[in-house]
Amino acid sequence: MLRDAPAAPLPSSQAGEWPLGRAIAQIQGIYVLAENAQGLVIVDMHAAHERVVYERLKAALGETRIDSQPLLIPVTFAATPAEIATAEAQAETLRRLGLDISPLSAKVLAVRERPALLAGGDVVELARGVLAELAQFDASHAIERAQHEILATMACHGAVRANRQLTIDEMNALLRDMERTERADQCNHGRPTWRQLTIRDLDALFLRGR
């Protein structure tokens, strides 16, 4: 499914201010198309948003801890003995990551706070993903030794998911966030987040000028 907006010339002033251009469409809930001064920009929206979220989490953690958001109703889930042991051993580390995960019973964990930056993600998947990462490290060195892996896991759960239909305003907001984010051309796994097709590239596809 292709969602588009009425086309209009891209002002040269905006082209200079917006390297990634202006959003014009979304394809299959996966790619955002944008027009810039050079031609067409294609963005993998999940990969791009994942990098944006990762860099925000990294910056927040660098300021001592990631801000948390209390949940009005705690989210509970059946946990393995290993998950419960990790939640107890890594309680302070979890708080630094903006998470409050504690045992409710011998087989159930409760999430009472989550990172404010990840307000839209699945709380249980996030909790399980972070606990799995933390289980590989001892409590005293977890953040220092596993910062990239843990934050990458959190960013993946907090990034906009594939097949979500975005409005034009949401697409443009993502493009502007990418322009303000370091290393926004690659996701946390090293994949490209966007590609440029120039007008010359497009002309070549249709044998224009031959």
From TrEMBL:
One of its GO terms (biological process) is mismatch repair. It comes from the Bacteria. InterPro entries: MutL/Mlh/Pms-like, MutL_C, MutL_C_dimsub, MutL_C_regsub, MutL_C_sf. Residues 23-166 form the MutL C-terminal dimerisation domain. One of its GO terms (cellular component) is mismatch repair complex. Pfam families: MutL_C. GO terms for molecular function: ATP binding; ATP hydrolysis activity; ATP-dependent DNA damage sensor activity. This is MutL C-terminal dimerisation domain-containing protein.
